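Figure 6 in text form: structure in, sequence out.
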């Protein structure tokens, strides 16, 4: 299977995961709002779980945007460079972005290991579960940027 085929497969799985996260967040938040304003009672665990899921949603969403090459880019200046320089500058920008994601992956992993013993206040989940979204999302983002750069090869 080609890189393009594998990337499309990963995108499909990632999109399903993101959809499940988003639906879960909206459902839990709706439950919380209804419980609070209709019944005068709120569930303590909902806010904590929604916050945890939102971090994962953002980081996996970032990786998905990197793989699609739909992340924020200011390329008006690069577009004016012409056919010779524009691909080189784009490739340099892609390498710099990959380098940044590698740094975030490494520092995020350090954060996970540094906080292994911490637990969340209400659900008593390991905080490393929340922090793990950072290195996982950044690592997947670096891979996504590399695949996107391979696909376009600077064009």
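Output sequence:
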């Amino acid at each position: 299977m080609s890189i393009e085929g594998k990337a499309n497969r990963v995108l499909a799985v990632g999109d399903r995961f993101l959809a499940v996260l988003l639906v879960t967040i909206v459902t839990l938040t709706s439950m919380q709002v209804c419980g609070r304003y209709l019944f005068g009672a709120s569930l303590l665990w909902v806010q904590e779980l929604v916050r945890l899921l939102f971090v994962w949603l953002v980081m996996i969403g970032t990786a998905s945007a990197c793989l699609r090459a739909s992340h924020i880019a200011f390329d008006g200046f690069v577009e004016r460079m012409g056919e010779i320089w524009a691909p080189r500058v784009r490739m340099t920008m892609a390498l710099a972005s990959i380098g940044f994601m590698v740094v975030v992956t490494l520092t995020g992993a350090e954060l996970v290991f540094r906080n292994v013993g911490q637990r969340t206040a209400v659900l008593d989940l390991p905080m490393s579960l929340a922090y793990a979204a950072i290195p996982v999302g950044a690592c997947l983002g670096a891979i996504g940027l590399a695949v996107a750069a391979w696909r376009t090869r600077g064009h």
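Caption detail: The two ends are 23 Å apart (CA to CA).
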